[in-house]
Amino acid sequence: MQWETVIGLEVHVQLATRSKIFSGASTAFGADANTQACAVDLGMPGTLPVLNEQAVTMAVQFGLGVNAEIAETSVFDRKNYFYADLPKGYQTSQMYHPIVGPGVLDVTLDDGAAKRIRIHHAHLEEDAGKSLHEDFHGMTGIDLNRAGTPLLEIVSEPDMRSAKEATAYLRAIHAIVTYLGISDGNMAEGSMRCDVNVSVRPKGQAEFGTRAEIKNVNSFRFVERAVAFEVERQIELIEDGGTVVQETRLYDPDRDETRSMRTKEEANDYRYFPCPDLLPIVLDQAYIDHLRAGLPELPDAKRERFESKLGLSAYDASVIAASRDMADYFEDVNGVCGDAKQAANWVQGALSGALNREHLDIRQSPVSAHQLGELISRVLDDTINGKAAKQVFQALWDGEGESADAVIEAKGLKQVTDTGAIEAMIDDVIAQSPQQVTQYVEAEPDKRGKMIGYFVGQVMKASRGTANPQQVNQLLKEKLDALV
């Protein structure tokens, strides 16, 4: 039997507000446990929540970024359940009237194909605390610093049909929230994580199968691996005569498997009801229009501009525009050197390779955009050749110079373009290579092109790599052909 995978994602994005959604406590990452949880976050008697306006602004900006409906009136609800990291006994969320309604997101897959994925809605809610299991010898510690941190939960329709599509969608969400500046998207720190709903059905069947929810997956790679394992598990279970149970599961990256956590709850298990401590959020059209006018250029528009205005290939434009930090760096490099294609080649090539080797983010690059742009300019104006450019880049990376010009001067890498100097080196090489010259002269004309490489190498060696390769090739061919 042929099977079809059905996937929907619930993406939790931590909003980049300085304080929590209902209190003035800090949201800064990395503080000592339980030092950033105030009386409101702890649900102390007599405390009342006050909505953080910035969280509302950021939610609306996201909705506008995915062409979604923005609710003029939205309502907070209490989601009631007991857990140790939820001191109030309920989570303030939006169940029935979320702030962002239906929208769409177009994603580009690895093969270049486009896929439209519908967004069901996005709602505001507060985060719970964090359970710590590692250091307590059979007990669990609770850190409530995260309690009350503002989250935007983005719920897709079940429109994805493969792990690759799910990952592409998640990357697109990550790009949008970071471009908007509403989240840093740091998955390692929990700023973005997702619940993955997976089911399978026979191909051609309209009815969905029973889904399992994989909770709190926190990397693109883990989403892909978790989906792959879960799809195989469900298919094997059904083909062996079993049935898939609706449940919540966890993904274990060490074992590369999902395992059961609890049976999946329904909405009525949480006894949702409107929060009596918070008024409805009422937005007027002028407020929405003001936020719409202030939106930055988003990934799709930037990618299109990189192709149409700067002449980048579809692939290069897509890769660079996927990250706001990389796109900004690239544009700064291009602003200095004035050659978008060369800027794209260096950013995706030497720079990205060095960053990956050192496990660095582009914001941590030892080579600034201005330095790289200057380096490319020196290649374009023939001050240095390609080989010397790699040496200059490495020196800048290692902090050996303030600028490309300073490194070129200090290391004597300036390209020799004086025809007389190059001719003198060529004459010396020819004089010292009688056997190779004889072979060149006696060779068939169509084989001489490959043989000239020996002479080029010797001239470049004599010039310590500073001779202009194009001039060397041209002058060598003229001098050797004159001997035939």
From TrEMBL:
Gene3D superfamilies: 1.10.10.410, GatB domain, N-terminal subdomain (1.10.150.380)
Gene Ontology terms for molecular function: asparaginyl-tRNA synthase (glutamine-hydrolyzing) activity; ATP binding; glutaminyl-tRNA synthase (glutamine-hydrolyzing) activity; transferase activity
Taxonomic superkingdom: Bacteria
PROSITE patterns membership: GATB
Cross-referenced SMART domains: GatB_Yqey
Reactions it catalyzes: L-aspartyl-tRNA(Asn) + L-glutamine + ATP + H2O = L-asparaginyl-tRNA(Asn) + L-glutamate + ADP + phosphate + 2 H(+); L-glutamyl-tRNA(Gln) + L-glutamine + ATP + H2O = L-glutaminyl-tRNA(Gln) + L-glutamate + ADP + phosphate + H(+)
Keywords: ATP-binding, Ligase, Nucleotide-binding, Protein biosynthesis, Transferase
Subunit (UniProt): Heterotrimer of A, B and C subunits.
HAMAP family xrefs: GatB (MF_00121)
Function: Allows the formation of correctly charged Asn-tRNA(Asn) or Gln-tRNA(Gln) through the transamidation of misacylated Asp-tRNA(Asn) or Glu-tRNA(Gln) in organisms which lack either or both of asparaginyl-tRNA or glutaminyl-tRNA synthetases. The reaction takes place in the presence of glutamine and ATP through an activated phospho-Asp-tRNA(Asn) or phospho-Glu-tRNA(Gln).
Name assigned to this protein: Aspartyl/glutamyl-tRNA(Asn/Gln) amidotransferase subunit B
